[in-house]
Amino acid sequence: MKIGILREGKIPPDRRVTLIPEQCEKAIERYPHLEIVIQPSEIRAYKQNEYTKHGIKFQEDLSDCDILLGVKEVNIEELIPNKKYIFFSHTYKEQPYNKELLRAILDKKIQLIDYELMTKDGERLIAFGRYAGIVGIYNGLKGYNKKLNKNRLTPAHECHNMSEMLDELIKLRFDPPIKILITGHGRVAKGAIEVLKKAKIKEVSNEDFISKNFETTVFTILSVDAYCSRISDDQFDLDEFYANPEGYKSDFMKYAKHTDLYVACHYWDPRGPVIFTKEDARSPDFKIKMIADISCDIDGPIPSTLRSSTIEDPYYGYDPILEKEVGFYDDNSIGVMAVDNLPCELPRDASRSFGKSFLEHILPALMGNDPEKIIERASETDLQGKLMPDFEYLKDYVNS
Questions:
Q1: The Cα angle at residue 327 between residues 217 and 251, in degrees rounded to 5
Q2: What domains lie within the chain, and their CATH numbers?
Q3: How far apart are CA 368 and CA 250, in angstroms?
Q4: What separation in angstroms does the CA of 61 have from each of 64, 68, 158, 320?
Q5: Whole-structure pTM value
Q6: Given pLDDT bands bounded at 50, 70 and 90, which one contains residue 309?
């Protein structure tokens, strides 16, 4: 088998890579009949000499490869027919901006295998979520300090790696102390919590968060049952909530009255309630000054997330009275951080972690040891130019 690692071509540029140099070498040692080649790239976080030092060759034309690995969507004009591709395609939710991509994949008879669909026992096997949480909370803390003109942290993307970024936390100043609220309990939230603990910020219970004052900055984590309840009787049933979120409402305002910095790490189902409304944000009781929306659902559960922001310009302001974007420092504005490609700010660390999961869970399956049918279940299309049975629901989306 010959695997080709693609040059990332999507704009804005992405510096991440599926496998870093040492991991390529390790994969070949483990599977002697495996060959890995790299497509040259000027932007990749790991440079050409780092790969060649580990005996990995570079090759511009990857048409002789069996499997092609990327991170973000591959440009349509760069797709090679009759190949197996693995990347984050952002198509299985019928995202309108990638409809033409999926149509081209079918036309070119490409087997599309999506990282996001690689699961075992219902759990994702590979993701960048942890680094989204790590960078997202860092940007949120930085933004809060920035809004109050306190000591400023170096942007994450200007740090060489995560260790250098975390060293910046010593510059944080919260005077008076603040309360930080996190929604979510998955990889993203766990990444955010790592940073808060590194910053020596104390975790408190949900109840203490809304009932007590603290002499130091604190945070709490809300699970969905803490801020959602059934419309009919104010109770909560998790299985029912997943099956029928339309029957639930949000009680988030009881926390918003006591929160200074809100960090959104949750997964949101469009059928479910929004976290808070535009009317909530106008309330005199709404205390939140800064929102780090790591989930970044545009026109979704957080009305202040009007658009995604960029790594170079991550902040903007939301005026809850005018219901529109304003300057970050405008009076009465809520600060917003809504970068939608946060792991790109720490590409070396994020790539290393991602590659480790790839070696552990995905490569063995690609090499034929796949009793769980991980690759089959993650394949949206086959080499005959057809949608796989589990993804036939995408037919109307592709043909519309």
A1: 50
A2: 2-127+347-399 (3.40.50.720), 129-345 (3.40.50.720)
A3: 46
A4: 8, 11, 32, 52
A5: 0.85
A6: very high
